[in-house]
Amino acid sequence: MKFFKSIVLFVCLLVTVVSKGQVLPVRLTTEMAENPLAIVENQPRLGWQLVSKESDASQVAFLILVASSEEKLNNDDGDIWNSGRVNSNKNLHILYSGKPLKNETKYFWKVKVWNQSGKVSKWSRIASFRTAPLESDLNPTWIGAITKADSHLPEGRNYHTATFNREKKMSFINASDSLARRSIILRKPFEVEKAVKEAVIYISGLGHYELTINGKKVGNSQFAPLWTDYDKTVNYNVYELSAKEFQKGDNVIGVLLGNGMYNTLAERYTKFFVSFGPPTLFFKMKIKYNDGSEEIIKSDRSWKYSKSPITYNSIFGGEDYNANLEQRSWNKKGFKDRDWKKVVIQEAPKGVLRPQTAPPVTIQKQYEVKTVKELKPNFYVFDMGQNLSGFPTIKVKGKRGQTIRVWVAEGLNEEGTIAQGRSGKPYYYDYTLKSDKVEEWTPKFSFYGYQYVQIENINYKEDKNKEFPTLVDLKSNFIYNSAGEAGSFACSNEIFNKTHELINNSIKSNFQSVFTDCPQREKLGWLEEIQLNGPGLMFNYNLQTFLPATMQNISDSQRDNGLIPTIVPEYVIFGGDFTDSPEWGVTGVILPWMYYEYYGDASLLEKYYPIMKKYVDYLGTKATNNIVSHGLGDWYDYGTHPAGYSKNSPIALSATSHYYYGAYLVAKASKLLGKTEDFEKYNTLASEIKTAFNAAFFNEETKQYGTSSQFSNAVPIFMDIVEPKYKEAVMQNLLADIKEKGDRLTTGDVGNRYLFQTLARNGENETMYKMHNHYDAPGYGFQIKFGLTTLTEQWDPRKGNSWNHFMLGQIEEWFYQSLAGIMSDPEKPGFKHFFIQPEVVGDMTFAKADYQSVYGKIASSWEKKDGKFILTVQIPVNTTATIKLPVAKNSEIKIDNKKVRVGFDEKAQKPVLELGSGIYTIECTI
């Protein structure tokens, strides 16, 4: 968040220095990232945003220089590539076309542009990118305390299938103190005798690592590298170090290793047991000296290891730390490591070593104690004020050898103690003191979803009972991915504002290495949440470099027969519909399209087209006469029945509709990519599925689909499966059911989006307003009334398990696209052209939203005041927008106090404006 706020501030400052009439390129990116450190493409794509003081500004040409050094670039010497003037309005996805790029090399570039008046801009600030090494160049050597063979950890992926049967646990699994599952510290002394110019580090510590140079942490990641299917892909991280990180003479590399998802444990709570091997490290550092020479330091037999003070670490069960096992200054020079042991060379993970291009998970916020209750003497429960994913930081004072146990949970039992029954137990942190001084500790390798902290046998703040240690301070650390926020929303309706907050706190809590379902019980990447909440996710967060990693995980998890499993990475095989459900698997087809729509980037469609095809073909093998009948259906649909499998609507209707949607999107992709034969095949298939769907599920007499449920009727309207002549009748049946239910929904995890968007896209925003503007269940208002700070798994929190799920958060799409009215144009993806068409509903008096698109900030803010509708819009340079105003045809319309003539959209029955870039205030009589 801080990163993107700084971008916005930086851009605003730049606007102030742009000369009148000029356009200035800012925020230069290479492969969608600023100054990336591991570009793997031979021809990376370059891009920039534009700012200008004048309205209706655009680019007509550009010139790019790429150089081998900053010095050359400052002298306008593009020794690697001088594009010359290129007459084009394109400022994104510009294919590098210079000299062949070398591996492990840093390049510098800048750009200038010409605007619509022919004026040339100043040069942009200098940007850079570094190319990644080949895996053969890395030549990785993996080291650790024990080989996989000697650890007796299970071999092969078959082990994943047995992870739920606790009776089949192997005895080694419980030996968390053994070297097979023990956190270790590794060190490597080295000497620097010459002046350092720079150094580059390539590192992967599995499951997770913390790297230090001379005792100082490198990077800000909390759980690096990000999770993958380690049999298919292993991420490594890249860091640049400056000369100041080194000291003349002795230096020390220190690495702390933990288990993560690579090596789970069975003690305490666990969702599954899986191991890809014991903790392991790959490391390479290339030091460049001022005299032009280089030195490489790698992981090899010269490193040493010792057990760390972390005596237990499990991603599911918690973490224990014994401060008495600390070895002071172990990662600094002068430490005597004679008692340390030589590392062993380990078997390399099976997966391909790839640079991590997605952003790291970091500590984003910290919360103080909100309230505290002493339930009985020396027994405290702390309310940290926010349910979140993370871990506590404690400051304690006591006697050497005393242990403090810290329990965390989302909710409380009736007597006020923490309740882990729904979210997975037992989960806790143990800290053992080393002295009588104040000590501070933060866990490294485990996190949980919690709001409350329970600590027994302590004093709080004051040393009342000398038998117990004293908790001096307690903080709660909120961790989530550092991709950055892309949008904001607010309006006059407090339920909607609180709903937006609830949903986003849940998204953040589950925005980890992957988008998880919950941050406590499972921590698994259930796929349907990504595509069903996709527009809301993209409006709120910058996912340009995150979603490509998601697609890599999907590709890695796809079975040979084409099945995309419900969870990715597939650390555990659930079996049956919990492994194979079309609404989940089709994410692999939908996600590349959403990426293209929001970012104007077809690279995921191009790269993963075979994955998309293969999945649709797989569904074809499961179909009978084009009807697919398996899966979870509209999961967690609402009613008096217990939540779970679809009860209100036929599972076959849900599965077949998603089979159709997948085929339709593959046909659309094949047309975009120029694959004529495939287009004919999948376009025909989609038509045949549509025909079969309507024959199987549509009743021509009643004009109802399936069971006449909201999902049954909404999904064929949304997916355009219903025949045009029946659409209005089906829509009226849908509206009648909503009204009969008291303006309440009956859809579930899958159906919510289709219901919400069917209403929004067919002029029924008032129905949406009534459906959500209340404090009853089902509804977001009930959760607000319940006093929650995150969205829960069920509409009634008392019935569900997790209190930190974002799967029901599909209303975010309506907030941005309907209430604020920011709508992309499918014909010009990436918001090159877009619509602003706000809906004024209920008694709302204002709504506003902004979105940092790939072209720049888009904003829409409207209010009803003194008989007028006032709309302020912001349109980025080099884009255009169509404004559709929610007023009558004969309304008087002014832009910036000047009366204007406008067009009229007969279909939408709204006045229409076409505008170029700039900030405009549009005033209309109501």
TrEMBL record:
Catalytic activity, EC: 3.2.1.40
Taxonomy, superkingdom: Bacteria
Domain annotation Alpha-L-rhamnosidase C-terminal: ranges: 826-897
InterPro entries, per the entry: 6-hairpin_glycosidase_sf, 6hp_glycosidase-like_sf, Alpha_rhamnosid, Bac_rhamnosid6H, Bac_rhamnosid_C, Bac_rhamnosid_N, Ig-like_fold, Rhamnosid_concanavalin
Domain spans labelled Alpha-L-rhamnosidase six-hairpin glycosidase: 485-818
Top-tier EC class: hydrolase
Reactions catalysed according to its record: Hydrolysis of terminal non-reducing alpha-L-rhamnose residues in alpha-L-rhamnosides
GO function terms (MF aspect): hydrolase activity
Alphabetic keyword roster: Hydrolase
The Bacterial alpha-L-rhamnosidase N-terminal domain, residue ranges: 194-364
Pfam families reported in the protein's UniProt record: Bac_rhamnosid (PF05592), Bac_rhamnosid6H (PF17389), Bac_rhamnosid_C (PF17390), Bac_rhamnosid_N (PF08531), Ig_Rha78A_N (PF25788)
Keyword Hydrolase assigned: yes
Alpha-L-rhamnosidase concanavalin-like domain boundaries: 374-462
S-adenosyl-L-methionine in keyword set: no
PANTHER family according to UniProt: ALPHA-L-RHAMNOSIDASE, ALPHA-RHAMNOSIDASE (EUROFUNG)
Protein name: alpha-L-rhamnosidase
Organism: Flavobacterium quisquiliarum
